[in-house]
Amino acid sequence: MSRPCSGEPSSPHVTDPHRWWALMVIALAQLMVVLDATIVTIALPSAQRALHMSDGNRQWVITAYSVAFGGLLLLGGRVADLVGRRRTFIAGLIGFAVASTLGGAATSSGMLYGARALQGVFAAVLAPSALSLLSTTFPDPKERGKAFGVYGALAGSGSAIGFIVGGVLTEFLNWRWCLYVNVPIAAVTVLGALTLLRDRPGNPGARLDVRGAVLGCGGLVAIVYGLSEAQPRGWTDPRVPGLLATGLALLAVFVWWQARAPMPLLPLHVVRDRDRAGCFLTMLLAVIGVFGVYLFMTYYLQGVLAYSPLRAGLAFLPLTGAIVVTSTQISARLLQHVAPRTLLVPGMVLAASGLLLLTRLTAGSRYASEVLPALLLLGLGMGLTFMPVFATATAGVAPQDSGVTSATVNTSQQVGGSIGTALLNTIATTSSAAYLATRPRGSEDRPRVVAEGIVYGYTVALWWAAGIMLLAGLVAAVMITGQAPKRRVPAKAAVPESVS
Q1: Using CA atoms, how far apart are residues 278 and 300, in angstroms rounded to an integer?
Q2: How far are the Cα atoms of 15, 29, 273, 290, 469 from residue 344, in angstroms, in the given order?
Q3: Residues whose CB is less than 8 angstroms from the CB of residue 350 and which lie 6 or more positions away in sequence, other chains included
Q4: Are 227 and 247 in contact (CB under 8 A)?
Q5: Widest pairwise Cα distance in the chain
Q6: Integer Cα distance of 122 and 99 in angstroms
Q7: Count of other CB atoms within 10 angstroms of residue 481
């Protein structure tokens, strides 16, 4: 006789006749969240000129979103448990659309930064509820595998779609439409959710760890703000180490609180596993280099090589294509037969090689011979990394911890992007300023010198990114020691839920 799982009805699952249409609704919401990072990246040079942002502060258009998203993602999962997935999903969509409207109508840089942070807040609510709805809509294991495949393919292509759509909208309309475009997408998705998604009651026993969310997100904001302030003030200014120390202290208190909270955002036993902790740290470090490339190459292609926004967006497609192909055709096939670090370490080396190639860029480099090979290497390396990290981090997790583990991997990705963008942008702008300070100002070659100085700053930052990528490879080699799934010795046979 079978026992129903806690919180689920005792009757068998009823197959939803509209489940595949519901999948399209859920995947469309996730696609909107994913593409919103790259669609704005392509529009950033135009937005910077329109709103008179400084080179040091422009990174907040990206980091305001990723800080709020990553810092509140775990809390968003708890909100979905408390209120109900469908309600949270719809609320997240509406809030995301409102925030996008505010961003598109921004009249100042501060208004745009605030709107992007608000987008991140609602994305942190939307993403966990979307994943939960996907699981409950497809109770059959075979159909669930197909559904996650479709979901992953659409979500994985979000960055490529963002580059292309961002280029088209920026070139033929203006940068504001890169934010306004979310409004009709959200409207269609809300209508689909109201029509196709089945509601499930929330869990009245769930509790929100608001104190943990404030500590974690506050620590992250302090670190990112400290890194961004190093550009105008210098690393020795008391405010910079003060902010960094405050951020680290808040994160330390966050860890202390998670060990004592009645319902913690991040149960510490999830990160005590060596392989899992190694995956979280590897993801955080690896993403630093990828986000740096997105930012610098956008400015390099449009500002130095004078590419149009659309052409710049298309220039990123080989990178995205290499990630998708390598993840699905190489990593997914080999991971069953080889240990995870057998893929991760070469992946980090390949990605670092691509970054090192980019350090040779000049103001007159050619895309086909100097940019494209580097992007392909970086894409191949990250394709060997992303899939094994996600698979290894979530392998062997207890059912009650599966949601928080998946959210923690995504949090590592967003936190790495936030810190990496702020750090590398600061390194690039300070290096460019130092380079230009040693050159004469009144010469006829000043425009060429300025371009050389900008590229010099990018290459210095890319050297740092390559070093951090190699550090990620070292972490993977030392910490991730798990065997190939087919070679693992099961600790204990699973007890079946029912006997037919």
Answers
A1: 33
A2: 39, 30, 18, 15, 11
A3: 377, 378, 380, 381, 384
A4: no
A5: 87
A6: 8
A7: 13
For the record, the structure tokens of 174 come out as 């203006």
The per-residue pLDDT for range 151-179, each reduced to its tens digit, is 655 655 666 678 888 888 888 888 899 89
| Residues 6+ positions from 148 with CB-CB distance below 8 Å | 134
Map tokens 């080989």 to a residue. 318
Please report the pLDDT score of residue 12 as a whole number.
Answer: 43
The pLDDT tens digits of the residues spanning 14-62 come to 556 677 777 778 878 877 887 777 788 888 888 988 998 887 788 788 8
At 431, phi and psi to the nearest 5? -70, -40
DSSP letters for 117-169: HHHHHHHHHHHHHHHHHHHHH--SHHHHHHHHHHHHHHHHTHHHHHHHHHHHH
Tell me which residue has tokens 């309600």. Answer: 87
The one-letter amino acid at 254: F
201, 256 Cβ separation under 8 angstroms: no
Q: What's the 3-state SS for 273-296? A: CHHHHHHHHHHHHHHHHHHHHHHH
Residue type, 55: D
Count of C-beta atoms within a 10 Å radius of residue 497: 10
Helical residues (DSSP H) of 300-337, grouped into ranges: 309-315, 317-326, 332-334
Token code pair at residue 462: 């890319």
In this structure, are residues 326 and 156 in contact, taking their beta carbons and an 8 Å threshold?
Answer: no
Q: Name the pTM for this structure.
A: 0.77
Tokens of 103: 């961003």
Q: How far, in Å, CA of 437 to CA of 430, rounded?
A: 10
In this structure, is the dihedral angle defined by the CA atoms of residues 112, 113, 118 and 122, taken in order, positive or negative?
Answer: positive
* Residues 419, 209: Cα–Cα separation, whole Å: 24
Distance between CA atoms of residues 83 and 200, nearest Å = 9
**Orientation of helix 317-326 relative to helix 372-394, angle to 10°:** 40
The Cα–Cα gap between 41 and 274 comes to: 35
Burial call 427-436: b when 16+ CB within 10 Å, e when fewer: bbbbbbeebb
Phi then psi for residue 261, to 5 deg, are -65, 140
Which residues 6+ apart lie within 8 Å of 176 measured at CB? Answer: 104, 105, 106
